[in-house]
Specification:
Length: 166
């Protein structure tokens, strides 16, 4: 575990509808919302979509005959926060800039964090990167059929950041 000096930073509570700019808190919120997306009918997780309506196709093996299609909401790690914490409707296509600079920066930070880029996330959140380089790490790629390694890596990152005051 990185040996970073514990930082105590006084932060104002986020305003209603604003996401925190504390990395460990953002990850915790996103993990909770990602689990909801994984369990909620009509949502699929795709780390290349922020939050958009998509069409899921069911075909016979080998990409053969189309059996049926279903409209779904496709979300990434940050997009799950848009869907569940910020209550964006399933059929909406939204990107971070729809939420104002404060929340957009939180979403961009989450995108960096899901890839283990803590210093990049800090830049979006206005946090001094000094002492954070040791927190950068590899994070398991999100796999829809087995998301546990991703969840475990992100929970560990959140724990390490929280312990250091981030």
């Amino acid at each position: 575990m990185p040996k970073a000096k514990k930082k105590t930073v006084r932060r104002a509570a986020p305003k209603r509808g604003e996401l925190p700019h504390v990395m460990s808190e953002l990850i915790t919120i996103a993990l909770k919302d990602l689990k909801k997306a994984e369990k909620t009918k009509g949502y699929v997780v795709d780390m290349s979509d922020w939050h958009s309506q998509d069409e899921l196709e069911c075909r016979t093996s080998g990409g053969g005959d189309l059996i049926r299609t279903e409209k779904v909401c496709s979300v990434c790690f940050a997009g799950s926060v848009m869907a569940f914490s910020l209550k964006v409707k399933k059929d909406a296509h939204v990107e971070p800039n729809k939420f104002g600079t404060h929340n957009a920066n939180a979403f961009y930070a989450l995108n960096n964090l899901r890839e283990g880029d803590v210093t990049g996330a800090a830049g979006y959140l206005g946090i001094d990167r000094e002492g954070l380089y040791d927190f950068n790490r590899g994070i398991a790629e999100y796999e829809y059929m087995d998301s546990k390694p991703f969840h475990d890596d992100m929970a560990k990152l959140a724990k390490d950041l929280k312990k250091a005051g981030y």
